[in-house]
Design goal:
Elements (H helix, E strand, L loop, with lengths): L2 H50 L11
């Protein structure tokens, strides 16, 4: 196999890997945005709860 063909194959593998990494980065960004929204909602909900009532123990277990 000559050198040019090997370089072209390596370049193709590099391009596929780069595309996969870009997709993973986009997924991570979407997860990060979703987590931020979830935390904001939780903060608002907890803020409303703490204004009206103090939460009791979060877990009491079975007795």
């Amino acid at each position: 196999m000559n050198v040019v063909v090997r370089i072209e194959r390596l370049h193709g593998k590099y391009e596929r890997l780069r595309c996969m990494i870009e997709r993973v980065c986009m997924l991570i960004e979407r997860l990060d945005t979703g987590l931020e929204r979830l935390i904001e909602r939780y903060d608002r909900l907890y803020g409303l709860m703490s204004e009206t009532e103090q939460p009791t123990s979060t877990y009491q277990g079975s007795h």
